Amino acid sequence: MNIVACVKRVPNTEAVAEISADGKGLDAKNFQYIASFYDEIAVEQAVQTKEALGGEVIVLSLGSAAGSKEIRESMAKGADKAVLLVDEEWQSRDCRATAKALACQLSELKADVVFMGKVATDRDNGAVGPMAATFLGYACVTDVVALELTATGGTAKRETEAGIETVEFSLPAVITCNKGLNEPRYAGLKGIMAAKKKPLDEVQVEVIANQAQVVRASLPAPRKEGRILGEGVAAVPALIQALQTETTLL
Amino acid sequence: MSNIVVFVEQEGGNLRQASLEALGAAHQAGATAVAVLCGDGAQAAAAKLTAQGVSAAICLDGPGTHSPDALSKALADIVQAQSASGFLAPATSRGRDLAPRVAAHLDCVLFSDVTGFAANGGGFEVTRPWLAGKAIATLTTSGAVLCATTRLNTFPIAGGGAAPTVTSQTLNDAGKARVTGVEAKGQAKLDVTEAPVVVSGGRGLKEPEGFQIIEDLAAAFGDAAVGASRAVVDLGWRPHSEQVGQTGKTVAPKLYIAVGISGAIQHLAGMRTSGTIVAINKDPEAPIFKVADYGIVGDAFEIVPALTAEIKAIKAKH
After folding, report:
1. Which residue range(s) make up the domain with B249?
2. A123 lies in which domain range?
3. Do B254 and A247 touch (CB under 8 A)?
4. Between chains, do A233 and B306 touch, taking CB under 8 Å as contact?
5. CA distance B281 to B297
6. pLDDT digits (tens, 9 = 90+) for A95-128
């Protein structure tokens, strides 16, 4: 089985946003990068799928030639090899352009099952997985918290506001992973050493132009100065009064 | 006037608030909406559609309505048949699942979880958060159709319109993936993304049982959801579905009450667009007080039950 896990490098959750000089993007100079939180769940699910059904796990990423740290980490956790689609403009690619580039490579890899995070924690679009699946004509289940897979299809549970939905699907498929699907493993020393020797194929790609055009980027307006109403239970009546006069909730 | 196709969710013939908000976004941008509904009760729900600016409603039935791939293809076909210049769905789990596929069928980009939607020249522009709200971007598209999902609790509902003309279509393609069942969570609990009031707890509650005071306060409001900080979700005290912040959910309720949450940057990003923010924390230096409209310093286990009792008393009078 050809199992692919897609990984995106994103600024860590402590990152502070600053607007770039052109006013249309984020200034990346102080960013520390990590693999997106949900992508780690995707890598773990890919490795577990290989352990259960056999096959090979390929990590696929669109990113800078300088950014292979997260890919090596994924291989240290059990992925067999990696393909990095080299694109220096990766951070500003829109979801359509990214999904098309990934779909093209997924087709070449003859992927049977593709795991992605349910959303990348930078642009928070959550679109690339289902878009790539649609371009490829694959089945897709999003926000998956439980999965049973066979050689030809599977059953997934996905989290919705109403409760847990059960979805049956055929392969090939794209599964986007939510927290709760698994607990990602830590890479052992052996894995880290082995990962250094695993093949990482850098592929130069021509990514199509963005449709999304940034008019401007800005920092959120600061909230107006709040006030401390007091200490302890004695401050509760003041809070009730404030909620009654300044909101329509009480 | 431009035309927008809006995916309208209904449950048992009742329209979902989040969908009325999406219709409100279309109306706000001066567009006429074509509402698409599906499933049992779609006809009954369409008859209740009196949101302003809805010109027509299309009710879908058949096996394809249970398949996200078949349904999204049908939605894209409707967008093209209507020559629409926009497609909107609420940023619910269903909307977020369908919209990227609809956009892909139309070969268009998608803007998820938009907080602003307005006319711009002949088209539209959207506002949406980056890094869970640490930055805000205003965007347009060069694509033929602007596709977006609308953040819950963000757009005003515009009622008082005339009932639309209703037609129906049957989707016979069963699709590649099919929903075969839903296991409802107990007594229709509101999700943190859609509740008008969110009461969140953090590590200041000391142990999982500490969340009883949070649940009691939420219950006193009636229409409140319980939220949680990443710290307590990582500790396994609360489910991830309740997590507010950058690796959880971004929320914008009318009232957000943070109890025992210090206010890490990734948490603040996920709740800073709430209407009114109240913080209760024993540390007067906690960052949460920097974004809170009202703060009380002290022991949550004394303050929160007193607050709950007051709210119950007020609610009992109404």
Report:
1. 186-317
2. 2-204
3. yes
4. yes
5. 5
6. 999 999 999 999 999 999 999 999 999 999 999 9
